[in-house]
Amino acid sequence: MEEKKNLIIVESPAKAKTIEKILGKNYKVKSSFGHIRDLSKKKLGIDLEHGFKPQYVIPDEKKKVVSELRKAVKNAGHVLLASDEDREGEAIAWHLSEVLSLPDETTKRIVFHEITPTAIKQAITSPRTINLDLVNAQQARRILDRLVGFEISPILWKKVKPALSAGRVQSVAVRLIVEREREIHNFKLQSYYRISGEFYLTLNQKTYLLKADIPEKFPSRKAALEFLEFCKGKTFSVLNITKKPLKRTPPAPFTTSTLQQEASRRLKYSVSYTMSLAQRLYEAGYITYMRTDSVNLSSLALNASRKKIVELFGEKYAKTRHFKTRTKGAQEAHEAIRPTYPDRETIPGSKAEQRLYDLIWKRTIASQMEDARIEKTTVTIGTEGSDKYFIATGEVIKFEGFLKVYSDRNGAEKAEETFLPPLKTGIPLKYKTIMASEKFTQPPPRYNEAMLVRKLEELGIGRPSTYAPTITTIQQRGYVIKEDRPGESRNITLLTLNDKQDQITEKTNKETVGKEKAKLFPSDIGMLVNDFLLEHFTDILDYNFTATVEKQFDEIARGGVNWQQMIEKFYKDFHPRVEAAEKITHKRTGEKVLGKDPKTGEEVIVKIGRYGPVVQIGRAEGDKKPRYASLRKGQLIETITLEEALDLFKLPRTIGIFENKEMVAGIGRYGPYIRHDNKFYSIPAQTDDPLTITEERAIEIILAKREAEKKKLIKTFDEDPDLQILNGRWGPYIKYKKNNFRIPKKQDPENLTYEECMNLISEAQKKKNK
DNA sequence: CAGTGAGCGAGCTTCCGCTTGACTT
After folding, report:
1. What is the per-residue pLDDT for A411?
2. How far is residue A578's CA from residue A669's CA, in Å, rounded to a whole number?
3. Cβ of A90 < 7 Å from strand B?
4. Of A152, A288, A435, A703, which residue is the least packed, with the fewest Cβ within 10 Å?
């Protein structure tokens, strides 16, 4: 009789494929595609009267998986449940055993943390049973999250706006963004001065320039000026030179969070883009699993990396290292994210996939390389009668070590060196210039997606599989908006003492401040919901809430606490707060009175209206209707001033007549514009303002646009009026029936024939359909 | 690329964590 194959069930199909390859013909390996059962999507799914008993259902999209697993179990000998070794994995194993009615005698639970032949074979020889305490910890986690989410969200629908949501993770993420915005807004800028000098020295008929700074801040223009006056005509000298060896250690291999941060910093990828690229790399077998909190590398990876490093750079560059996770709540069910085969430097695929792989490869290899050794030289420069010293530093790399593949600073491609001229103590120095430049203290930075992930991870909130979805959710709910801001110009004072006339000159420079790229800003709704939740659910919004309940889940997992009792205790405190929040009568609109309209004396009010944030002048009384104007992008109820609010009523405004038609200035969806004869002309925001733009300037803009339009049309064809060759923002292109097509660089657009154009179009369409 | 801002009521929305496709844009 034929021996039945044993069945191994893992979570991921890609993993199943790999393991099947490793184990060969005696094993069938199937995947559960994550959880197979969950609480109902629509209902609470928890029996509050009977010990919070969860009501699990198999979601429609999982029915096929389950029926296939049933079939596989029927044909199998032993069943080995090999889901991940963490709370969720244990629960998956338990749900599988329940749903598939697996008998104890033929069912085993096995775990491994890396997909290597040794690890898997070792796991098979040491099976255990399902750890029900760990499963219960997962159930408690699941139920707590469901209670929080499904009891608070409906309150928001009633008291704020439909379809909003709240949760243990997302609401704290929003809170971080809201509070940071307020910190930035309340930040009091302080001006101070930094003094730096350029000195020169002559050695063996060669002149060297040496730049040095005074580390202390000068509190005022007066203090800076006094110091410059003092320096007039003084000779400086090198007081001290110290050389100090420094070493730099490579960073640990990637986890989900650090991969997202580095891909954001170096490649400017959004968190979700990074994850979808990583998913493709994983499925193609190029990298290990991309949702992990572990920095651990398998011994197989350590060996292969070492071999590659020796081959590329030589023995002295290799150093095998074991990294330890310091992350709060890490469960370390997988390895770090690394190339499956560290000897593979490049992979086929899209440009973006290749760049992400390159980053992962470099980070992994670097983690197994020697420290970089750097010699840092510090030179102290001073003059008699002053206790302020200029400091110059130089850094020379003595041994590159890991910096050969992975520079650690600011995402720069290469590690940077700074050199100093050959100096000796006591050498006199003449100054060329001594400059005091005004600086401002800086508010804390706004979060971008990856910085937010890092903060969440630091607080132990969320898991590798949820970072990207959480960030998408808070944007989809409209709590947070990812956008760019142009920044504003501000004046800074520059005082320069020059050796030419030994005179101090003063100059005003401009610098841009507050420029932002892809940063997270809270919306009015985000702020309103945050304040509402903070008022009624202080505990859940607490940054330590997750850490606190995690400790209790750990207790359950250790078998010390009963999960129902834990939830019971939580709910006894939580549910009355839900009821209290439901009792408030008014809808929250965030209404705020800004002041009085100087023209009419009526109240100017901002609030969230039916279609979003709005300013309102006057209250509705009898027949009297208030006037309304929507807030603009970037304006917030919390920070808008009375003047800004009143400005919103000044547009659109008629600025004059041109060719017997009115010109109207306004601000629309795509920025400031002039409307004339039903055509729109955009006003360049950097140079003009629709509130103040003159008739003459408006005509200028209209004429300039007409001129550009004329130049835009390069060629038309008698054969087909739908076909045009046009001049666009990025050069000439073909337009055909609302679609645009590129013209190859080598072709001269003026001489293209009708046939050539049609060929280009059909080729482009063929490519697209592939 | 503009302006909406009354009110009622039915039916819908929602959490976090595990996994991928199957869709459209």
Report:
1. 53
2. 39
3. no
4. A703
